[in-house]
């Protein structure tokens, strides 16, 4: 027989019971909170993989593949136009929504910078799938210009972006296309044209076509990004275009892109190239004599005389080295700086356009 409990033990019973209840409730609440957190995470992660992104949306509109992505709080729209031998899908990483996307490093950085600044990004693939260039001619004869305004308006209306500013970015053939688009589409409030020879006729605002018939209007603020050191002929056309626009009262400016060393940091702009692999690629190029003392390419990487593919092949494995689809090829073109789309300065370019071209571009770089 157990001895009867003492008075002291009896007095502690209510206290111990309260402590026990508190501990049990604590475990229940913590378990409930953790369960809720796990349930929330389960919505984002399934089978150890992140839930698929709803972007980009991909659709054929007016016969042209159209892709777009909208940030949570959009403040504007950026139309991006690819160059020859490319397509709109270059601006997104491969995914279940876009298995054919190439995710080229400079194009993806353009998209990412724009999204971070609050811009919805819209890309369209050109009509000509042989040369993959844009049909840069008069509105009435251009398969692309006859479609682009209505495509952009449809996307903007669907996403509720009609009241936001629309800017246009393009490189090479795409750079010419956005210059022509701005002349016929009043909604375009600013242009960033890269590495393209500028035909003065593209800077004349249309009084027909898709101009809306609203009477005379100013050509929008325009920024030219070009590689003057290694492409002086295009630089001359930019100089002439700047004079034409400024004389007409349109804000206009230029950014000159110079050659740069091939560094591990530059190569890591690609999602395919790790820090370790980047170091091996740079070492292979140096050992093979492809780089000078400053670390810059000695031969145009697009040239058949360039040894870079032969030099890096042993270290890159099965990575594509094909021109216009290879991540590494694009980054070497950026380093050589003769003719390539570049993501550098986009942040400054958008700031300049947001200011209506009234700020000094040098102050924003």
UniProtKB/TrEMBL annotation:
InterPro entries named among the record's database cross-references: AB_hydrolase_fold
Keyword tags: Membrane, Transmembrane, Transmembrane helix
The organism's place on the tree of life at top rank: Eukaryota
Annotated TM spans: 12-29
Keyword Transmembrane helix: yes
Entry-linked PANTHER family: SECRETION-REGULATING GUANINE NUCLEOTIDE EXCHANGE FACTOR
Name under which the protein is recorded: Uncharacterized protein
UniProt organism field: Chlorella vulgaris (Green alga)
């Amino acid at each position: 027989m157990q001895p009867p409990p003492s008075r002291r033990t009896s007095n502690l019973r209510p206290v111990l019971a309260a402590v026990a209840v508190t501990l049990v409730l604590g475990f229940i609440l913590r378990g409930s909170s953790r369960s809720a957190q796990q349930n929330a995470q389960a919505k984002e992660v399934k089978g150890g993989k992140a839930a698929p992104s709803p972007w980009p949306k991909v659709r054929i509109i007016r016969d042209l593949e159209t892709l777009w992505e909208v940030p949570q709080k959009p403040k504007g729209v950026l139309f991006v136009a690819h160059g020859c031998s490319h397509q709109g899908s270059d601006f997104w990483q491969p995914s279940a929504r876009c298995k054919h996307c190439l995710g080229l490093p400079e194009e993806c950085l353009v998209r990412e910078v724009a999204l971070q600044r609050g811009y919805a990004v819209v890309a369209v693939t050109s009509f000509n799938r042989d040369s993959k260039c844009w049909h840069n001619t008069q509105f009435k004869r251009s398969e692309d210009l006859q479609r682009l305004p209505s495509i952009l308006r449809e996307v903007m209306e669907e996403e509720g972006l009609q009241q936001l500013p629309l800017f246009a970015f393009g490189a090479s053939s795409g750079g010419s296309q956005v210059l022509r688009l701005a002349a016929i589409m009043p909604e375009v409030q600013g242009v960033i044209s890269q590495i393209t020879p500028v035909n003065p006729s593209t800077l004349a605002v249309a009084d027909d076509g898709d101009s809306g018939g609203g009477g005379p209007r100013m050509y929008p603020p325009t920024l030219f990004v070009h590689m003057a050191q290694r492409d002086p002929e295009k630089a001359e056309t930019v100089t002439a275009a700047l004079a034409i626009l400024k004389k007409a009262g349109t804000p206009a400016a230029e950014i000159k892109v110079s050659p740069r060393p091939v560094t591990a940091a530059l190569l890591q702009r690609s999602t395919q190239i790790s820090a370790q692999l980047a170091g091996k690629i740079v070492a292979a190029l140096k050992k093979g004599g492809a780089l000078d003392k400053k670390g810059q390419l000695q031969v145009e990487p697009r040239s058949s005389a360039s040894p870079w593919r032969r030099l890096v092949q042993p270290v890159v494995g099965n990575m594509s080295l094909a021109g216009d689809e290879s991540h590494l090829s694009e980054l070497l073109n950026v380093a050589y700086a003769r003719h390539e789309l570049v993501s550098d300065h986009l942040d400054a370019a958008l700031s300049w356009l947001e200011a209506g071209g009234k700020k000094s571009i040098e102050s924003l770089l």
